[in-house]
Amino acid sequence: MKPSAYSAASAAARVPAQPGAADAHRERDVHRSGAPDRGGSEDRARGAGEPVGAARGEHTHSEPPVSRPRVVVQRSSVRGQVLDALRTALLSGELRPGEVYSAPALGERFGVSATPVREAMQQLAVEGAVEVVPNRGFRVVRRGDRELAELAEVRALLEAPVWLRLSRTVPAERWAELRPLAESTVRAASSGCPATYAEADRAFHRAVLALAGNEQLVAIAGDVHRRAQWPPAGAGAGRGRAGLIADAHEHTALLDALIAGDQELVRALVGEHFTAAR
Question: Which terminus, N or C, of the chain has the lesser number of Cβ atoms within 10 Å?
């Protein structure tokens, strides 16, 4: 028969060691409530001679640390690599708008199982790049001009006022620290790779918005920015090399105006940059 809470507490009280004040209070609490306290449940869970921390899953001197988190990190790494590869394929036009792709087929292409592909595709569905097709896979979303125009407007509403406010409060030396990021967008644009430029472009804009000290703004604006980068239907790889280079040079021109403190030029360049963002 399973011992009651009362009998378990009474047995503990008959241990030869003299109870302290805390133990006495604990025993009185058990008598009153009829429920075991945390200390009593741990005693019964671990058994005779078992270390105290074992009942709570804590590491003890006689128990080596469990290495299971390494497996989780490795799986996350695979999913992240697949997600990056899928984003590159979307931006380059390798995955075509309107087409349906299955997780097993894409897994064979990347040399992985269907599971990390499916997880990565679910993330892309959240980002609006693909949509789930039950029992078939994932369809690359067709992007229209109206959707791109709406995203450009949202980006302008989110970012442009922040850029203008920061232009009046951030000192020139802080703007100068962003020079390497602006120059990296020029190099990425020169490569002609849309995926490489998309990453550099987001990194520069993220660094600018981070100066505002608002993490929610950085996260939301970054999500909208990424959505705006998916190419529309029939656009292939989106903007060509010339368009990417022009966009990147707007970054360096903006940075020059911000360092110089030319508010009028900054206002004009900010308006042009976000109006041209398609």
Answer: N
**163-173 per-residue burial string, b: 16 or more CB within 10 A, e: under 16:** beebbeebeee
**168's tokens:** 């009046």
pTM of the model: 0.68
229-257 burial code (b ≥16 CB/10 A, e <16): bbbbeebebbbeeeebbebbebbebbbbb
Q: Alpha-carbon distance 60 to 55, whole Å?
A: 11
**Cα–Cα dist 142/228, whole Å:** 13
| Amino acid at residue number 98 | G
Contacts 24+ apart (CB under 8 A), 105-113: 105/137, 110/82, 110/85, 112/78, 112/82
Q: Which residues pair with 101 in a beta bridge?
A: 138
Query: The tokens 């009593």 sit on which residue?
Result: 40
pLDDT in tens, 59-110: 444 544 534 434 333 455 888 999 999 999 998 888 999 999 999 999 999 8
